[in-house]
Amino acid sequence: MATSLGSNTYNRQNWEDSDFPILCQTCLGENPYIRMTKEKYGKECKICARPFTVFRWCPGVRMRFKKTEVCQTCSKMKNVCQTCLLDLEYGLPIQVRDTGMSIKDDMPRSDVNKEYYTQNMEREIQNSDGTRLVGMLGKAQNPSDMLLKLARPTPYYKRNRPHICSFWVKGECKRGEECPYRHEKPTDPDDPLADQNIKDRYYGINDPVADKLLKRSSSMPRLDPPEDKSITTLYIGGLGESLTDSELRNHFYQYGEIRTITLVQRQQCAFIQFATRQGAELAAEKTFNKLIINGRRLAVKWGRSQAAKGTDVKDGFDEMGTGLEPVPGLPTTLPPPPALEEEAPANYFNLDPSSSPALMNISLPPPPGLSNPLPPGFGAPMFHPMGPPPPPPMALRPPGHIHYPSQDPQRMGAHAAIRHSD
Amino acid sequence: MPKVKRSRKPPPDGWELIEPTLDELDQKMREELYEYCIRESYADKNLIAKWKKQGYENLCCLRCIQTRDTNFGTNCICRVPKGKLEVGRIIECTHCGCRGCSG
């Protein structure tokens, strides 16, 4: 290796010299008081083979002494602990974390390619301000909930135990009681977890622990959207005391516009129908197995299609907030698009394939009679670029005709009501 | 020599060879002879000097209190009294195999 400790001592100026290791809580151990030794250029990094500062400490009674195995550059590139090579945030193997955050990091792994890459990354790290992660990890933003579910809640100190006494396994351990190594049965060599390799674990390929975790996560309960694209209702069960319309509404409005909420007190459940399919899917994704209201986890399932909904609709039209009439004049739901086995490319407008290309450029006419309800309090008519004259202000509208929850003056955030009823 | 309590168990091999020598040492030792032995390095002067100090009466060897030999400038593990060492495990120090020379 061109930059390793043995061969090239002329590059000594560029060797790593750090004064604190990058470690996870489990590796440091449970004792808040630690004595640590520091050895400059103590060992070669197990990944990039460059000399680096080795830190060594005891993570607790009856634990083996741990030391840093990879250099700080390698650890920062993947945001992992220098000793155990697990992610610093989640404590998960690199392969699992990359799968969960959909990061595809293709670092070179061989000879000069690797050296060149690490050299460049080191310079980049040096020049950055140190707050954001360098490389692929800096760009990935979304905190993945799959990773949160997989992560351990408490530290796993069994990792820090001493290794198995190989003499004892053969029956030849002369040290007896004072032997610091473990006198236990070694792990089964047929177990796939037995052959792990630090390079494989670091590059995220062929890691048996990661495979096991990913298999476990794929078998966790999931809620799939139904094939019938017109279903936009979610069944919410297990409500109990919090069976109030406003509670549900206050939570679910963030996912999309709610068309109706139907409460069934007897069965402690509710049906929430969204105006858009995406809203319903988003709500399902964000609440399935996660939403907890008033200390209860709600059961979230998909409802059945419009026609098939069997439970009796509660007589909720008198109650403020339920049973909002759909806005008159809006286009109804479109028919589902034809199946994808069609030959015609991009037939979005359902036009006759033989029509002239000029027709393709005509944009859709504005939907007929688009009524635009004004928020109360606005006297002047709104400028409407489409053409139809603005509707009369709200005070002249017959009372009871609210189409959107935001029109309800009793709701939070609404302006002072001009309504006379109620 | 003053009366010392000894175990009732039979001694291991070789005791018959050294017992007469030890008995002679007991009988013939006098202060002048003792100082001669110390001067001629038949006895470890420094170790004996430590034994005279309070707390170091049972010191195993001089290496175990040499703080320069340890990473953090401490004594050897064999110098920790058994009561403080809550592990309850047998510790043999790496220098001399001592299992606890204080407490």
From TrEMBL, chain A:
One of its GO terms (biological process) is mRNA processing. The keyword Nucleus applies. It comes from the Eukaryota. The keyword Zinc-finger applies. It is found in: Cytoplasm; Nucleus. Residues 388-422 are annotated as: Disordered. This is Pre-mRNA-splicing factor RBM22.
TrEMBL record, chain B:
Its main location: nucleus. PANTHER family: PROTEIN BUD31 HOMOLOG, PROTEIN BUD31-RELATED. PROSITE patterns: G10_1, G10_2. Belongs to the BUD31 (G10) family. It is found in: Nucleus. GO terms for biological process: mRNA splicing, via spliceosome. It comes from the Eukaryota. One of its GO terms (cellular component) is spliceosomal complex. Keywords: Nucleus. The keyword Zinc does not apply. It comes from Sinocyclocheilus rhinocerous. This is Protein BUD31 homolog. InterPro entries: BUD31 (IPR001748), BUD31/G10-rel_CS (IPR018230).
